[in-house]
Amino acid sequence: MNIIPTPINNCLIIEPKVFHDERGYFFESFNNVVFTNETGIEVSFIQDNQSLSTKGVLRGLHYQRGEFQQAKLVRVIEGEVLDVVVDLRKDSNSYGKTFTQTLSDTNFKQVYIPRGCAHGFLVKSDRAIFAYKCDNLYNKESEGGILYNDPFLNIDWEYDLDKVIVSDKDKILPLFENALPL
Ligand SMILES: Cc1cn([C@H]2C[C@H](O)[C@@H](COP(=O)(O)OP(=O)(O)O[C@H]3O[C@@H](C)C(=O)[C@@H](O)[C@H]3O)O2)c(=O)[nH]c1=O
Fold first, then answer.
1. Residue 151's domain is classified under what CATH number?
2. Mean of the per-residue pLDDT values for the chain?
3. pLDDT the model gives residue 103
């Protein structure tokens, strides 16, 4: 497993070791002991989520606040997405920075997103199955979000934003400067 730092504090790219043979492939998508040893991060994941999206679907940018902040370990089971992380931690030297990474069923990459970051992704393939672990439970009242095309963040989604499919909830998210505090 390779651990690659990103421009966002404590946000890491994880490249698992994949064993290919005549049957297909095998890899450990998560191993708590290896993860802690290799990253130095102790995290206890307590919820797993999975979503299916079609091409052009953009989900995000989402985070949870207060006692329901979430660290996430995200990956793609099928298809390809552009994954986006935004640092919302005011005491972080990467505050306000964004990081983008292609995740796919052929590069097997994962992203570890620490608490205090917003997250989103845009589907590039015909469909994508996205899976992630969270270290805190979903709590509707604690949801926060930022508009995907916020001009200050100026995220390059590498896609025609006139063609994205966004939920009604995500279309009316606030700008970065008005985002609800962590
Ligand atoms: C996220 C979530 C949603 N739900 C419900 C609420 C709603 O009725 C339905 C769909 O929810 P959403 O529209 O918020 O789903 P979605 O837009 O896929 O939300 C996800 O987006 C990505 C980018 C993230 O980072 C995740 O943390 C999560 O916020 O599922 C749960 O029951 N548990 C959960 O953990």
1. 2.60.120.10
2. 98
3. 99
Q: Is the CB of 59 under 6 A from ligand 1?
A: yes
End-to-end CA distance of the chain: 31
Domain assignment present for residue 3? The answer is no
Domains: count for the chain: 1
What would the pLDDT profile of 53-81 be if each residue is shown by its tens digit?
999 999 999 999 999 999 999 999 999 99
Contact 82, 158 (CB under 8 A): yes
144 lines ligand 1 (CB under 6 A): no
Annotated active-site positions, please? 62, 132
Residue 34 belongs to some domain of the structure: no
49 lines ligand 1 (CB under 6 A): yes
pLDDT of residue 63: 98
Residue 37, domain member (yes or no): no
CA 39 to chain centre: 17
* Residue position matching structure tokens 């996430």: 72
Using an 8 Å Cβ cutoff, are 115 and 70 in contact?
yes
In a domain, 136, yes or no: yes
The string of pLDDT tens digits covering residues 99-130 is 999 999 999 999 999 999 999 999 999 999 99
Domain that holds residue 62: 44-178
